[in-house]
Amino acid sequence: MSDLKLPTRSEDFSEWYNQLVIRAELADYAPVRGCMIVRPYGWAMWENIQQALDKRFKATGHVNAAFPLLIPRSFIEKEKSHVEGFSPELAVVTIGGGKELEEPLIVRPTSETIIGHAYAKWIQSYRDLPILINQWGSVVRWELRTKLFLRTLEFFWQEGHTAHATSEEAEIETRQMLDVYTDFAVNEAAIPVIPGRKSAAERFAGAQETYSIEAMMGDGKALQSGTSHNLGQNFARAFDIQYLDKDGALQYCWTTSWGLSTRFIGAIIMVHGDDQGLIMPPKLAPLHAVMVPIFKSDEEKARVMEVGMKLRDELIAANIRTKIDEREGMTPGFKFNDWELRGVPLRIEIGPKDVAKGTVVLARRDKPGKEGKSFVPQTGLAEVVNTTLADIQKSLYERALAFREKNTHTPQNYEQFREAVETGFALSFWCGDGKCEGKIKEETRATVRNIPLAQSGGQGQCIHCGQPAKEQAIFGRAY
Question: Into how many domains does the chain fold?
Fold first, then answer.
């Protein structure tokens, strides 16, 4: 790791982010432009995200499966709005085994089509419904402007795909999975999110309705952090997904899809990080605690390491992800800065005096300097660490929520609206007209992030055109 300081977030947020991802060893650039290599530290974080989501999916009755990476082009073309939405982003394979293919293959940008094809074979009767399947994998979308984790040609995600007998069941499923994402974001990632409905212009290609969770980043911009789509019968009709109902009549299914990707790692970085580097929410952190031994002689080292190893084993036995930094040729100060950059929630310092006193120093990553340091007994350390981690998790959420509330405005006129979206969110009445939405985007570079499910009630005037409006929308500039 370089000794050079990161740019501060206030002077260049984008460059702070770019350098931090590389220097904290979360990811690296791949030889193919726009692709990324996820390094072990970043992958450990993704594994924790996977586990947190997977247990939620299974608790709601979903099962995992795997579908092919390659999709016949004719499948993509079956659903008109779907192909229109994705055609600029498709990667197409035309040669295989040294020969030109009879039909070009698409490297999956998403799997609605191939899964729709399978569901059409698997579903015969109402007894076969619902089908509740999730897939973990990667997809390819040929993005022009890329940024590690936030927008890459290939990215990792989960995509859920379900089929139902009725419209009502499909809508319940769509909203249920939005709630799952909200619960995950709040309780695992310590990120406050706004669940809501997307505008028609922002809907997923081919969806009847799209819902999202939107989060505010540390620079005031929005990040769409998870989406859930009610596909209606669009894909069922395109792929002939039908079932015999209880009366023996043939009916089209109602389908949904929903996804959350490695872009969420970018959200965690930008919501919680500071000028020193990452701050990991404990529940998703690859490491909960790092122990830094401090000594000046071999004799001191032997005594410190003996106690350090014993404490490490006790912490691991208590399900606290713990590591001792045994790297040689590096000062304790260098190690402190390195682990601060990597965002480990707790640092445990132990030296000869601590060994003699039966104590250690606990340093919280979320509280800099002396404010975050405390001397605690070695006896019962695991209990203190667990309590401290829970407090860090809570304080990170509260800090992020306070930041979002401070930077979310309810402008009274369009001039105030323009000022609000320069630095954060505007919560404003909107008439729902796509032309009005387009003009706002053109004039301010802000988009409708979503129409929050939680509405204050009442009516107002559209912030742009002044026409009567029944709903408020969150507007912001987005990644």
Answer: 3
